[in-house]
From TrEMBL:
This is Hpt domain-containing protein. Coiled coil: none annotated. Transmembrane segments: none annotated. The modification Phosphohistidine is found at H55. It comes from Olleya sediminilitoris. The keyword Membrane does not apply. Residues 16-105 form the HPt domain. Keywords: Phosphoprotein.
Amino acid sequence: MEQPNQTYIDNLSGGDASFKQQLIDVIKKEFPEEQKEYFNNYNAQNFKLAADNVHKLKHKISILGLEKGYEVAVNYENSLLESKFDYKNEFESILDTITSYLETL
């Protein structure tokens, strides 16, 4: 399975350690909130809002270097808009992987 990394963040920060840490801090703050909102909306069967949550989360997936994960998120977002659940397990596995990764930062 693809693993999160900081390559994009390193490139974006241009070697500025303070800016890099700010980016990481934003992700560490926002990701759990967005993940929780996704699960709340999914469990409430509000699939349009859950798709909106996936849309927000897919950007963090991309920032953390998960190219295949980003594709899964795009497909899952589109699936949810049709009240289908293709890619759900794959997407939620990516969320678990990111959660574990962020705990190490």
